[in-house]
Amino acid sequence: MKDQPNKLDQLIKNSFEDFELEPEASSWVQIEEKLDKNANNKKVVYFYKYAAAASILLLLVAGFYFVSNQKSKSELAKSETKIEKNRTEKTKNNLNFIDKKDSIE
Questions:
Q1: Angle, CA of 66, 70 and 71, to the nearest 5°
Q2: How far apart are CA 52 and CA 45, in angstroms?
Q3: Which candidate among 57, 60, 84, 93 keeps its CA 20 to 30 Å from the CA of 102?
Q4: Residue 56 pLDDT > 90
């Protein structure tokens, strides 16, 4: 029984061993058209890949700029708050000094 599948395989192999199929000339034209179309499609695919990569890079740069700009604004606001507190304290100290000076005279 085991020999029968091997004989069948051997028979099929022998019958197709020297087989060659010659495509018609019109088939070659169709094949070339498909290859040209595929080449154009690949160019479009590459364009979209590069466009997507450029868009992602642009978004990352814009996001980084936005975040760093926000940090600068918050640091500036904190500095302005500190400066205003210092001005207020100095003004109070000056007023206290003037009051003390007036009370001494």
A1: 120
A2: 11
A3: 84
A4: yes
Q: Which residues of 49-74 are buried (b: 16+ CB within 10 A; e: fewer)?
A: eeeeeeeeeeeeeeeeeeeeeeeeee
Residue with tokens 């997507």: 52
What amino acid is encoded at 51 in this protein?
A
**Structure tokens, 85:** 């507190």
Measure the CA angle with vertex 37, ends 36 and 41; round to 5°: 120
**Global confidence as pTM:** 0.37
Classify residue 83 as left (phi > 0), alpha (psi -120 to 50) or beta: alpha
Match 């210092």 to its residue by tokens: 86
Higher-confidence residue: 99 or 78? 78
Give CA 30 to chain center in angstroms.
38
Token pair recorded at residue 62:
């814009």
Q: Rg of the Cα trace of the chain? A: 43
